[in-house]
């Protein structure tokens, strides 16, 4: 009793001086406290919301204040405790100094004891804190020290509300927790504390206590707060990291910080300049810990030089070890978070984060595969359990969609500082992401996907859908599943083949090649080609617009010259014929329809390019091939869209069934997604497709036509089906199903027909000789065509094709506005159906 009284008197004296509960619980160290004060004029909205809850909300006695790491939750907690004052504040508990969860309830009880004599007398009479309290379970402690005296016996004065504030609860450890394997004990203890508080708040609504629990939005804490027994007790308040007010508050803090540094270091009034201040503020966003680290780092040395180190770090340059990281506290916070990931899970975590980093580095949005957490998992070959296990400790630094949303949303970085930390090995050390290693792993996964999809050649020839085993099965309709699988296959084809090309970027729009190069030996490249069914290698891997045709065929030619015997041993020389090498470096490949011809029959490495027979020339039948016949190509295209038919458009000798482009009107077409594209010429934008999501879950696309420099007219409104398929279209005053504009025409494989505004029938069809898509009138005269091109960057956007209108062809009416509008609409629908195999 005397010992308790002595400690109580000590606590009483120190709390009156504004100090915390030091020396009451053994091992409780407050040397790092209190947290920094709130900067004047910041966090006003958050503080107003907390005040409103405390003074007005009588039903929800618990406030869960949560937010990402470094956002300033402890500072907000301290500010609120200062505002309510010592007469209302019953306990302020900083859990990140809690080495044992059994300390929490006794510490709170001792603090409450000095707010009322009745409760203090109860504690002195009933409890010997040194010998009994620490031997009780947390539940027994809570009942003995909180529930019984406050809830049942009402020993607190009822004149006002008492505030108990628990800050950084996620850092409170379980008893004797000293390793990652024991981390489950800490989580269980934290969840138990929340459950006890929530049960008390619900069971004793008249008790004059309100609780503020401040923490990061950890997965286990979100789970306990979402429990039905806990939900009625609390109100949630999220501290944002990137909203307008948070960013403005951080900028206000930085402006004051730089002013203080100017004064203390006698710098000119214009330092650091508005551009550098803006850059630091934008990098900090709403993360106060980032801004505080920057201030401390610049203050410690030559401000001008230190600021340059900060700016370099913001740009992603590796930290200069000699001067230390500018983000000491932030890095320590991130290191602590990463250290909680179990060792046997870390490899999967690195794969997922590495894939996310690579998506950030490759400024490339793929039309065919909408990235979600589910799609990422299937690319990496991870199932749902493995994904969430790998990410379970990262909820405070990542947005992680729930399983219900994982098919639509992906993980993302709420703040770029964690992204930069992972990328900089000098800061994150063994937690850093080895991007080349992850990139190579992804490439191997693409190989596995393609091996599986291409193993049955007959299935491809019969145009059956490819079968791919998914590690994370998809939800949704059959159409949506097949649409997604088609996207995954396209993604695998596109990137897999690019990795084969020596000196080729991993993506055609990579910011910096040095960040994630994939180093493959010639043998690895050869093994890769051998592992995939080569008959299906060409189909869809390289379209003219990919921009890498020359490099890819140079690679194949090099393989033939250096590894001819190996190719023959693997049977590859019997699967294709190289029928021409042009000066441009292209090699046209097509499959022999009548007989298989060995490589050696058609290409001799000792021959020069000029000596090689061109595809358009007559080849000696004794050499094993027939005279070139366009009908043979058309027959071939009906079986599978081999690269020979796709490549002939760029051959100098290719034969078009259209008139010269000199008599055409040409509109450049931006964007791989035709629903989000513009059609323009030298006069400006003539047509614009604009797609948006409606409230009912359906998306709609509007086609606008420019009728003057500053005015557009709506041509058509396309309302897509809920599953993303064809819906209905309003064009002019007519409403009809989209399918009426893309009816399959059985007379020509892959063609779609529609009735034009003139009452005549038109048909879109693949060209029999090149990659174009032709529009024929009722007399089979080509009046327009879409010509795919290599991606070409314009200020208005990347161009992927051209829409040609042949002014004088047919009836000569294709340029009349109603017909022209219909051509644009149906061309878009044809490309959409072609992309999704509708």
Protein described:
By secondary structure, the chain is of the alpha+beta class. It has five domains: 2-238, 3-Layer(aba) Sandwich (Rossmann fold), CATH 3.40.50; 244-326, no CATH class; 342-435, Arc Repressor Mutant, subunit A (Orthogonal Bundle); 553-655, no CATH class; 661-835. 40% of the residues lie in helices and 15% in strands. It has 27 helices and 20 strands. The strands form three sheets. A 13-stranded antiparallel beta sheet has the order 14-13-12-11-10-9-8-20-19-18-17-16-15, covered by helices on one side. It is elongated and about 105 Å long. The N and C termini lie far apart (82 Å). Mean pLDDT is 74; it is low at 1-8, 11-32, 177-181, 363-368, 457-462, 504-515, 537-548 and 574-662.
In CATH terms, what is the architecture of the largest domain?
3-Layer(aba) Sandwich
Number of extended strands: 20
Number of helices: 27
The residue-averaged pLDDT reads: 74
- pLDDT below 50 for ≥5 consecutive residues: which ranges? 1-8, 11-32, 177-181, 363-368, 457-462, 504-515, 537-548, 574-662
Shape designation: elongated
In brief:
The protein is built from 27 helices and 20 strands. The protein has 838 residues and is an alpha+beta fold.
List keywords for this structure.
838 residues; alpha+beta; Rossmann fold; Arc Repressor Mutant, subunit A; 5 domains; 13-stranded antiparallel β-sheet; 5-stranded parallel β-sheet; elongated; disordered N terminus; DUF6593; NPHP3-like_N; NACHT domain-containing protein; P-loop_NTPase
């Amino acid at each position: 009793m005397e010992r308790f009284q002595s400690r109580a008197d000590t606590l009483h004296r120190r709390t009156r001086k504004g100090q915390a509960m030091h020396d009451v619980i053994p091992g409780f160290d407050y040397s790092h406290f209190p947290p920094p004060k709130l900067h004047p004029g910041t966090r006003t909205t958050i503080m107003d919301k907390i005040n409103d809850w405390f003074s007005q909300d009588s039903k929800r006695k618990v406030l869960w204040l949560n937010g990402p790491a470094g956002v300033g939750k402890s500072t907000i907690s301290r500010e609120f405790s200062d505002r309510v004052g010592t007469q209302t504040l019953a306990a302020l508990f900083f859990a990140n100094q809690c080495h044992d969860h059994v300390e929490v309830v006794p510490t709170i009880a001792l603090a409450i004891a000095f707010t009322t004599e009745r409760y203090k007398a109860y504690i002195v009479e009933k409890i010997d804190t040194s010998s009994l309290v620490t031997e009780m379970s947390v539940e027994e402690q809570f009942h003995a020290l909180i529930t019984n005296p406050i809830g049942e016996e009402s020993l607190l004065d009822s004149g006002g509300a008492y505030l108990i504030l628990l800050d950084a609860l996620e850092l409170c450890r379980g008893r004797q927790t000293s390793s990652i394997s024991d981390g489950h004990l800490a989580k269980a203890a934290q969840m138990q504390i929340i459950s006890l508080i929530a049960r008390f708040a619900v069971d004793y609504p008249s008790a004059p206590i309100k609780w503020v629990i401040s923490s990061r939005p950890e997965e286990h804490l979100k789970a306990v707060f979402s429990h039905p027994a806990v939900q009625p007790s609390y109100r949630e308040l999220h501290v944002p990291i990137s909203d307008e007010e948070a960013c403005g508050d951080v900028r206000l803090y930085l402006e004051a910080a730089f002013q203080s540094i100017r004064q203390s270091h006698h710098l000119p009034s214009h330092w650091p300049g508005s551009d550098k201040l803006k850059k630091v503020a934008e990098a900090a966003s709403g993360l106060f810990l980032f801004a505080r680290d920057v201030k401390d780092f610049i203050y410690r040395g030559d401000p001008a030089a230190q600021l340059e180190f900060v700016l370099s770090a913001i740009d992603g340059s590796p930290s200069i070890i000699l001067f230390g990281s500018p983000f000491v506290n932030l890095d320590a916070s991130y290191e602590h978070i990463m250290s909680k990931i179990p060792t046997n899970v870390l490899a999967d975590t690195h794969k997922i984060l590495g894939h996310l980093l690579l998506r950030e580095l490759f400024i490339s949005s793929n039309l065919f595969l909408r990235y979600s957490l589910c799609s990422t998992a299937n690319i990496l070959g991870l199932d749902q359990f493995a994904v969430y296990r790998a990410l379970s400790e990262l909820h405070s630094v990542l947005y992680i969609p729930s399983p219900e949303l994982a098919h639509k949303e992906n993980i993302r970085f709420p703040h770029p500082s964690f992204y930069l930390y992972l990328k900089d090995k000098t800061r994150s050390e063994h937690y850093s992401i080895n991007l080349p290693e992850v990139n190579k792993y992804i490439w191997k996964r693409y190989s596995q996907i393609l091996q599986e999809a291409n193993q049955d050649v007959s299935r491809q020839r019969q145009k059956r859908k490819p079968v791919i085993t998914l590690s994370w099965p998809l939800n949704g309709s059959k159409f949506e599943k097949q649409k997604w699988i088609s996207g995954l296959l396209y993604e695998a084809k596109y990137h897999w083949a690019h990795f084969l090309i020596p000196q080729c970027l991993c993506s055609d729009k990579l910011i910096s090649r040095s960040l994630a190069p994939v180093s493959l030996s010639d043998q690895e490249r050869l093994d890769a080609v051998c592992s995939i069914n080569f008959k299906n290698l060409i189909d869809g891997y390289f379209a003219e617009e990919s921009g890498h045709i020359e490099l890819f065929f140079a690679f194949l030619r090099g393989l033939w010259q250096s590894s001819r015997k190996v190719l023959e041993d693997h049977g590859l020389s019997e699967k294709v014929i190289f029928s021409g090498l042009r000066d441009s470096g292209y090699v046209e490949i097509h499959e022999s329809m009548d007989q298989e011809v060995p490589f050696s029959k058609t290409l001799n490495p000792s021959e020069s390019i000029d000596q090689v027979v061109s595809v358009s020339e007559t080849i000696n039948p004794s050499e094993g091939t027939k005279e070139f016949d366009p009908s043979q190509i058309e027959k071939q295209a009906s079986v599978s869209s081999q690269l020979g038919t796709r490549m002939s458009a760029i051959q100098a000798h290719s034969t078009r069934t259209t008139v010269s482009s000199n008599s055409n009107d040409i509109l450049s077409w931006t964007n791989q997604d035709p629903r989000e594209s513009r059609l323009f010429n030298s006069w400006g934008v003539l047509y614009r497709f604009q797609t948006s999501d409606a409230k009912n879950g359906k998306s709609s696309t509007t086609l606008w036509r420019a009728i003057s420099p500053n005015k557009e007219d709506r041509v058509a409104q396309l309302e897509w089906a809920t599953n993303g398929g064809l819906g209905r279209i309003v064009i002019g005053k007519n409403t009809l199903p989209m399918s009426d504009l893309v009816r399959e025409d059985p007379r020509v494989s892959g063609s779609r027909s529609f009735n034009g505004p003139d009452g005549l029938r038109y048909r879109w069809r693949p060209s029999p000789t090149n990659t174009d898509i032709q529009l024929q009138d009722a007399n089979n005269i080509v009046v327009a065509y879409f010509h795919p091109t290599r991606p070409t960057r314009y200020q208005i956007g990347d161009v992927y094709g051209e829409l040609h209108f042949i002014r004088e062809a047919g009836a000569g009416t294709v340029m009349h506005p109603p017909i022209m509008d219909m051509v644009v609409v149906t061309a878009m629908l044809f490309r959409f159906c072609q992309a999704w195999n509708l």
